[in-house]
Amino acid sequence: MVSVQYNPVLPEVQADPYPYYKRLREESPVHWSEALDAWVLTRYDDVVAVLRDLRFSADRRRARNRFVQQAQTAAGEYGPTARANTMLTSDPPEHTRMRLLVSKAFLPRAIERLRPHVQNIADELLDAAPEPGRLDILMDFAYPLPVIVIAELMGVPAEHRAQFKRWSDDIVATLGGASATPQLIEQAAKSGGEIVDYFRDVIADRRRQPQDDLLTVLVGAADEDHALTEPQLLATCVTMLIAGNETTRNLIANGMLALLRHPRELERLWHDPSLVGAAVDELLRYAGPVQCTSRVATEDIEIGGKTIEEGQLVFVMLAAANRDPAHFEDPERLDIGRKDNHHIAFGFGVHACLGQPLARLEAQVAFSTLARRVRSPALTSDYLEWGPSFILRGLKSLPITYAA
Amino acid sequence: MEPASEAARTVTDFVTVASASEVGPGQLKGVTLSDGTHVCLANVGGTFYAIAGECSHQGGPLAEGELDGNIVTCPWHGAMFDVTSGEVQGPPADDSVAAYQVRLRGDDVQVAAG
């Protein structure tokens, strides 16, 4: 038997990573990947154990990993912001303070109030689709919907969304390092610089004229409470903008692709949109937009008979854990009515996704709107192009036809 | 449910749940009352507080979470609560949790059992 090797950058892995996850889970659940210069964990219990164990730090800057070091030297003018601690890269107690600054805005009840507005946006996007009977689910629908919502929440003009997408795509392309060519790294640094300049201007504007938006809250936290340094303030803005659009975009598009490839499940949802709540959680489990997250061991820690050394980087594969047969019955099956779906697509532990109520709301509105308005959808091509990131997995486009 | 009024109603029986010396400042401890209620005890700078032991989201064990200042973060999905009031501070939880009256008698930490 050839021992399993994991290199997520290979196109065949990117197109369908799940068979590789299965082999890793079965044959090498605590796996050293030369391609990533890091450990790769694929079993649910191991993933949850790491995410609950604060000896594994979220501060990836301290990792002994050649890509982390490479990214830090390549960041250029974007460096101070890229190196600033955000709620994604800090540990308690600093993490708690930063998360608290914005957490109340994401309480489910506060988010639920946005539903009619998100519904209007979804309907307007379909109204504006360029050609009857044809739709690019990604470009016409899945991409603009969440970026409009997060832009409005933060308080930046949604009309700038094409720029936000480009900056966000460029920065995300190099995450995790292994897929980062010199050209992509240069592009990420350039876009990083541009997005920081953009937010510097918006922040200056909020200092002159406070508004009723999240940016004003963050500026207040930095200026009055000194809870954020200037680079942290900028980095938090960048993080929220990227987290608020890239992930939900991919949830909607990856989820729609999964449904198109399982026509019976699609029919089930299209006939009974009341299933949308469970369906969105099943799509999160089955076709999650965030394949993995990472941690750094702060001391030598043994897992599954292997020793993770202090300073080593660990990728915990959420998408693999979500198909672990030890926790999910018939895990390779898409079942939009699945019960007891305790997936960890939003992560687990103190860093579990802050925006999950918003992501669920947006995806539920998206799929119920598609079910109502896009009848008999069909893929126009079997060839699909995936973006370069193995962490945030997403399509470049998803063209379909439907009965207009 | 308002945590404050919950606390106001439960003023009668105090039961000893821990000794002060076993829960240092910044620490949490999970205790179970005789009726089976799980309580999360918190020491914030020498003052003790008690809230429900289970997160209002999916029942995560709050006493196994992180206490920073007066905020506890659930170890399961990151929901946040103020241990002094039980008030929810962050998603995915939506509801506040019960807060219990606490008093110190010597080294005994006592919680109002209601």
Summarize the entry for a quick read:
With 404 residues, chain A is of the alpha+beta class. Chain A is built from 19 helices and ten strands.
Q: How would you describe this structure to a colleague?
A:
The complex is a heterodimer of chains A (404) and B (114). A 5-stranded mixed beta sheet of chain A has the order 1-2-8-5-3, with helices on both faces. A 3-stranded antiparallel beta sheet of chain A has the order 4-10-9. Chain A contains 19 helices and 10 strands. Chain A has helices at residues 11-15, 18-27, 44-52, 66-74, 79-83, 94-103, 108-112, 115-127, 137-142, 144-154, 161-173, 182-208, 214-223, 230-243, 246-260, 263-271, 276-286, 318-321, 356-373, and strands at 30-33, 38-41, 56-57, 134-136, 292-297, 301-303, 306-308, 313-317, 375-379, 399-403. In chain A, α15 packs across α19. Helix content of chain A is 50%, strand content 10%. The mean pLDDT of chain A is 93. Chain B is mainly β and 114 residues long. Chain B contains 1 helix and 11 strands; from the N terminus they run αβββββββββββ. Chain B has one helix at residues 3-9, and strands at residues 14-19, 28-32, 38-44, 47-52, 66-68, 71-73, 80-82, 88-90, 99-100, 102-105, 108-112. The longest helix of chain B is centred in the first third of the chain and has 7 residues, at 3-9. The relative contact order of chain B is 0.27. The mean pLDDT of chain B is 91. Chain A binds chain B through residues 52, 54, 92-93, 96-97, 99-100, 103-104, 106-109, 111, 346, 348-354, 356-357, and chain B through 65-66, 68-69, 71, 73-78, 80, 88-94.
